[in-house]
């Protein structure tokens, strides 16, 4: 029997297309959800964009018929109904306040169920609302259409082989992949450790060939382990070869530090660092997901850089360390260099939600905390990367702070899953073992998960 699916507001604020995600069943939008969408439509961030996109979809459907009676969805053979009523305190247990939007939607579900013999299912990604709905006798489920099982692909592998093969790649600098016919197929830009137990060779599969990695540094920084070596190779590769790099993993694994080192290596030369770079990019853009509220930037004093600076403390800390590396400049001198970068436009900061509408060319772009953004924004970020630009996405799906995101629907998971195998993308997933912050940090990562 066909079912009624009542959509919670958070579903549409994440995935406006969820309206078409229930095959030939009936999708219900309550009056409470419509009002909540209206209150979210003005901000510039991802939430505001999705609220407006949902409004456009609903307006298109409204023009096809009467929403109260129900409009057939030609896309799915299902139906969309707008339910403005069935909100009553009598539908709820005594401890549930009808003034709370979640409870109003639960009440609507109960009211609809009384009028039909069909199953009525509330769809929400809010865990507390699922618990509350179940307590009120409402059938409830997550929205699973946009869920992706986190990929086991980490961007690298280890292969046991003979000393002769290792010697051969050091001699020839490359090998044909057919030598490892028993291995599962290689992925574009996958990194490989060849080892015989005593000797090893670090390689990458690129252009249908296994190539030996060269020793490399970035802004005077030398990688401290093999995963850092892999990451640095991807970060320093020309944008024409690898325009997208995804670095995932826990804090302390140097994701941000290496990214900033590579950015400086390819953009910055000055008398203080005595660093000579074959510059590849004109600017460095750094952005970070603002979990508290992207729209709140509009109410903070100062220019955009002033507003975002408190959120980007990790970048500035790494920047100071990199500029201080190899010399003994005073903090004041380091600050002068950073201020100069900002004033000349070499270094620019922005909230990720502000990237919509931009086209960033010939720049090194670093986006942090990508686990806290959804699909639409991660798609916007990648598609705003213009000619000659390199985009680095950083994040850790074990540190998601947004209420309705998790490992299965985070923009970071979505991006990593869909870009696997692309010749334009390299990705490395760090583990706690690669933490280089301190012995205490490593111990905490192991014990406090």
TrEMBL record:
User: Which InterPro entries does the annotation name?
Assistant: P-loop_NTPase, PhoH, PhoH2-like, PIN-like_dom_sf, PIN_dom
**Pfam families the record matches:** PhoH, PIN_4
Q: Listed GO molecular functions?
A: ATP binding
Q: Which UniProt keywords apply?
A: ATP-binding, Nucleotide-binding
Please list the residue ranges annotated as the PIN domain: 3-131
**Entry GO CC:** cytosol
State the SMART domains in the record.
PINc
- Which domain of life does the protein's organism represent? Bacteria
Say which family it is in. In the N-terminal section; belongs to the PINc/VapC protein family.
Name of the molecule in the record: PIN domain-containing protein
């Amino acid at each position: 029997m066909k079912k009624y699916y009542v959509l919670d507001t958070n579903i549409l604020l994440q995935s406006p297309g969820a309206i078409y995600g229930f095959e030939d069943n009936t999708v219900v939008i309550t009056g409470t959800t419509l009002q909540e969408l209206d209150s979210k439509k003005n901000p510039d961030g991802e939430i505001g964009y999705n609220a407006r996109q949902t409004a456009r979809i609903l307006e298109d459907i409204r023009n096809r018929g009467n929403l109260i009676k129900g409009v057939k969805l030609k896309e799915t053979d299902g139906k969309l109904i707008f339910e403005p009523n069935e909100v009553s305190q009598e539908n709820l247990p005594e401890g549930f306040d009808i003034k709370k939007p979640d409870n109003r939607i639960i009440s609507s579900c109960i009211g609809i169920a009384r009028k039909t013999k069909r199953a009525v299912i509330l769809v929400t990604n809010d865990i507390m609302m699922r618990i509350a709905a179940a307590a009120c006798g409402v059938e409830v489920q997550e929205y699973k259409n946009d869920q992706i099982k986190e990929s086991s692909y980490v961007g690298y592998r280890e292969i046991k082989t003979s000393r002769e093969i290792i010697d051969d790649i050091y001699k020839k600098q490359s090998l044909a992949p057919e030598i490892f016919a028993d291995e599962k197929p290689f992925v574009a830009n996958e990194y490989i450790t060849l080892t015989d137990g005593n000797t090893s060779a670090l390689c990458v599969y690129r252009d249908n060939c296994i190539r030996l990695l060269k020793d490399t540094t970035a802004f005077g920084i030398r990688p401290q382990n093999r995963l850092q070596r892999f990451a640095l190779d991807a970060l320093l590769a020309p944008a024409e070869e690898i325009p997208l790099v995804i670095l995932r993993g826990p804090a302390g694994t140097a994701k941000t530090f290496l990214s900033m080192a590579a950015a400086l290596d390819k953009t910055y030369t000055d008398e203080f660092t005595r660093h000579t770079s074959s510059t590849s990019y004109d600017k460095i853009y750094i952005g970070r997901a603002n979990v508290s509220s992207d729209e709140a930037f509009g109410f903070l004093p100062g220019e955009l850089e002033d507003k975002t600076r408190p959120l980007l403390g990790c970048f500035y800390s790494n920047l100071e360390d990199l500029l201080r590396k190899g010399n003994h400049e005073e903090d004041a001198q380091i600050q002068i260099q950073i201020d100069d970068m900002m004033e000349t436009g070499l270094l620019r900061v922005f909230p990720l939600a502000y990237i919509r509408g931009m086209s960033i060319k010939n720049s090194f772009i670093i986006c942090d905390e990508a686990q806290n953004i959804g699909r639409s924004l991660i798609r916007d970020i990648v598609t705003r990367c213009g000619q000659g630009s390199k985009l680095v996405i950083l994040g850790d799906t074990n540190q998601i702070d947004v209420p309705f995101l998790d490992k299965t629907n985070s923009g970071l998971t979505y991006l990593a899953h869909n870009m696997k195998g692309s010749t334009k993308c390299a990705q490395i997933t760090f583990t706690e073992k690669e933490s280089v912050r301190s012995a205490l940090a490593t111990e905490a990562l192991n014990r406090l998960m």
